[in-house]
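Example 3.2
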Amino acid sequence: MICTTIRNGEECVFMTASGCSYNGGQCHPVVEACTGCQRSKQFESGWFCSAAPDPSVKWKYGNCNMATHVTMTVKQEKAKLNPIKASKRGNK
């Protein structure tokens, strides 16, 4: 349904005929860690996340999985090489 509380005109899964069914009856504003994210939008009542109704929960245990401004780096470890096997491979 279309939100009628804070994010007027936006599609919201928590909106019912009797009002917002989310905890507290409304969405919570973005936290400081959300600055720079493309999912945060400005409405009349402030900045809110278009993906999560309570952004602080997403950042509670680390990075938000919906954040567009955070890049994940994968650390690759160099495989341990046995010198005896390496010398045998080099002779072929």
